[in-house]
Structure formats: structure tokens, C-alpha cells
Amino acid sequence: VHGRPSAPGIAARRPAGSSTSRTGSGLSISSDQLIKTYFQGEDAPGIKVGPTTVAVVSLGFIFLVVLLHFYAKLQR
Fold this sequence. Notes:
The protein is mainly α and 76 residues long. The protein is built from 2 helices and 2 strands. The chain has helices spanning 31-40, 51-75; strands at 20-22, 28-30. The chain has a two-stranded antiparallel sheet with strand order 1-2. Strand 1 and strand 2 form a beta hairpin. The longest helix has 25 residues, at 51-75. The mean pLDDT is 75.
């Protein structure tokens, strides 16, 4: 597919998931790069939380819920 010339007037086909857009400066950026830059970049909105912090907070929340269930059973 890549080695053959295309028919005149037919645009070359891009692989799926790699659409590009033009920025104000005329640079082409693929949608994948744009998403990674926005959500994982240095200036992404929101707080920066690492995976270890997320795991510890999640396990702490689960422990709290189980503890509250035991407490509710003891109160009956």
C-alpha cells in the first residue's frame, strides 16, 4: 500500500487515530499528541497526584468504609 503511487486527485490515507490539526503557528499536531500534552503536560489543570498517593488514598477509603460497616453492625 505504501509503495504504490495513488491515483491523481485522491488524498493519501492516514492511519486511524492519527488525525492532525493545524495550530496558530502552522505546526501540525496529531490528536494523540494534543491529548497527551493537555492531560499529562506540565501545565495541565488540576493537582498533580502520583499513582502511589492514589493507591494509598483508595485503600484508606476502602478501610474506612469497612470500619464503618463493622461499627454499624455493633450498634444494633
